[in-house]
Write a structure and sequence with these properties.
Elements (H helix, E strand, L loop, with lengths): L3 H8 L4 H8 L2 H9 L6 E5 L2 E4 L4 E4 L2 H4 L8 H13 L11 H12 L7 E5 L2 H16 L3 E5 L8 H4 L5 H4 L9 E4 L4 H8 L4 E6 L14 H12 L2 E5 L23 E4 L11 E5 L1 H7 L17 H16 L2 H22 L3 E7 L2 E6 L5 H13 L6 H11 L1 E2 L1 E2 L6 E4 L7 H18 L5 H18 L1
Parallel strand pairs: 3-13, 5-6, 5-7, 7-8, 8-9
Antiparallel strand pairs: 1-2, 2-3, 4-10, 9-10, 11-12, 12-15, 14-15
Family: Belongs to the class-III pyridoxal-phosphate-dependent aminotransferase family.
InterPro entries: Aminotrans_3, Aminotrans_3_PPA_site, Class-III_PLP-dep_AT, PyrdxlP-dep_Trfase, PyrdxlP-dep_Trfase_major, PyrdxlP-dep_Trfase_small
Protein name: Ornithine--oxo-acid transaminase
């Protein structure tokens, strides 16, 4: 048996940063080194990462939601091994495969009953691109409405629906006829749709950038308006789907039935990229309406056997291990514990979320010494304080987390759905200590703040 990859890994162990600096994104290497995240990870299991010193880290990023099952789940590994050992014909193209049919069947069983057709692709951004095309063709309209601060991917069509300026700047001109409305604003949506010239309203049920939750009536009213004006209602569940929020789909919290659901990330099982669009039969039949249009939209690798097997195994694990229910339970434990910290610390202003999609928002304090320190950070770079939470969580408590978006003091947790009660206690104890340290001025964390301020000011000057 060849040891080619094993030999490469042994030879280049610890050289990952050097390789990336030389051949990939140099700036990413600089960022990781500047904030002390330059670890050499050597293995991973479930929600945990291990470095070359065998230190254990709790991963609350889960690859931006990809590792809902944790890393290296044995059920998914076995499914992939089964495919490799079966010598199946793959991507024959002038053929249709069994595994893609089975995954479509299993996915649609878990969708609202108005959705009966499935399209597979390779990523969330590809799912968004497909939704744009399908919506335009089905309705014979050009306009797409999306929400401010939304995130739908970074390919050109998806980028045109991106609500954050930093991702869009310099890449234009983008797709025409894409209109932004404020999230959670029904009047603005009504105004955008009432001329009956909008193909689709594409929305995240819970916005990933900031973990912004809708009011209880927003999504049902949005769906009603879309139906009224002949606009397709598209739920982007690329991050919220497959149990993340304590329901299989986030839209279930509000009883909404979209015309399309977009998913990806967790469906991969953490191994093989896969995306999907669940849709009504009306949409499928409109786009693929004749035999000569059977290949009018597709993706070369989209229904490959490895991806389909990973998706099937992922659904099996979610069901067998009751991960949707666990996400709801552990999310409630975390939010309850975090609320106690909100009541305890003036810098900690809100904990919000559903299931295991959680945001911690920090804001300006009232006490004089803290307010002066806070204002120094905010003047240097808006949203800088959140780094004073994420960096100590990582360095002192070996918890990997992220800032929820640019220019906001919001920290975001997306734990794997397989975390345990021990992990929730680890998170809450670490947060208590880190936030308490932030209330000590002067103190070690505020020394970190000075360093962050210095880096921010140098970046602006440069």
């Amino acid at each position: 048996m060849s040891t080619y990859i094993a030999d490469l890994l042994a030879t280049y162990r610890g050289k990952n940063f050097e390789l990336h600096e030389n051949y990939l994104n140099t700036q990413m290497v600089r960022v990781l080194k500047a904030i002390g995240y330059d670890r050499i990870y050597t293995k991973a299991r479930g929600p945990y990462l291990y470095d070359d010193q065998n230190n254990e880290y709790l991963d609350l990023l889960s690859g931006f939601g990809v590792f809902a099952l944790g890393r290296n789940h044995p059920t998914v590994i076995q499914a992939l091994q089964d495919v490799l050992q079966s010598e199946l014909p793959d991507m024959v193209q002038m053929d249709v495969s069994v595994l893609s049919g089975l995954l479509a069947e299993q996915m649609l069983k878990r969708c609202p009953d108005n959705l009966s057709k499935m399209f597979f692709c390779n990523s969330g951004a590809e799912a968004v691109e497909a939704a744009i095309k399908f919506s335009r063709y089905t309705t014979k309209r050009e306009k797409i409405v999306y929400c401010e601060h939304g995130f739908h991917g970074l390919t050109m069509g998806a980028l045109s629906l991106n609500g954050e300026k930093i991702f869009r700047e310099g890449f234009g001109p983008l797709l025409p006829e894409c209109i932004a409305v404020p999230f959670n604003d029904i009047e603005a949506l009504d105004k955008a749709l009432r001329n009956k010239d909008v193909a689709a309203f594409i929305v995240e049920p819970i916005q990933g950038k900031g973990v912004n939750l809708p009011s209880d009536d927003y999504l049902p009213e949005a769906a009603r308006l879309c139906a009224k004006y002949g606009t397709l209602f598209v739920a982007d569940e690329i991050q919220t789907g497959l149990g993340r929020t304590g329901k299989f789909w986030a839209i279930e919290h509000w009883g909404v039935k979209p015309d399309m659901i977009l998913t990806a990330k967790a469906l991969s099982g953490g191994f093989v990229p896969v995306g999907a669009v669940a849709m009504t039969k009306t949409i499928m039949d409109a786009v693929f309406n004749r035999m000569d249009r059977a290949v009018v939209h597709g993706s070369t690798f989209s229904k490959n056997n490895m991806a389909m097997a990973a998706g099937l195994a992922t659904l099996k694990v979610i069901e067998d291990e009751k991960l949707v229910e666990k996400a709801a339970r552990h999310g409630e434990e975390l939010l309850t514990g975090m609320q106690k910290l909100v009541d305890k610390y003036e810098l900690f202003q809100e904990a919000r979320g559903k299931g295991l999609m959680i945001a911690l928002e920090f804001g300006s304090p009232k006490s004089f010494s803290l307010k002066a320190a806070w204002n120094l950070l905010e003047t240097a770079n808006k949203g800088l304080f959140s780094q004073m939470i994420t960096i100590p969580l990582f360095k002192n408590h070996r918890i990997l987390s992220q800032v929820a978006g640019h220019g906001m003091n919001v920290v975001k947790f997306l734990p794997p759905l397989v975390i345990t009660e021990k992990d929730t206690q680890w998170i809450l104890a670490a947060l208590d200590e880190v936030i308490a340290d932030c209330h000590k001025v002067p103190g070690a964390i505020w020394d970190l703040g000075k360093n962050l301020t210095s880096h921010a000011l140098k970046s602006k000057a440069g």
